[in-house]
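Table S2 (continued). Query chain:
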Amino acid sequence: MEYNVITTGSKMVVELEGRLDTTTAPKLDAFVRESLDGISELCIAMEKLEYISSAGLRVLLAAQKIMDKQGRMVITGCREEIMEIFDITGFTDILTIE
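Corresponding output:
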């Protein structure tokens, strides 16, 4: 998995590409935990994300918990396969998905 980050003021967009799984999730988790200070709006763009595992879901949940305290988080561009995982796991009730 690779990610591209665009920060404008207090808004951060993280564009994910590839597979967010047990191997790649720790890297993204470390980045999220270190980079959200001063961010009030976080957008995670998933247009190019092919797969997400439970490890990837945990990263999203951790980011959501941080953003609940300091602003807003939104998920955009989910493929059908990713949306199905969100539906099955109940993440559609936890995350704001556009």
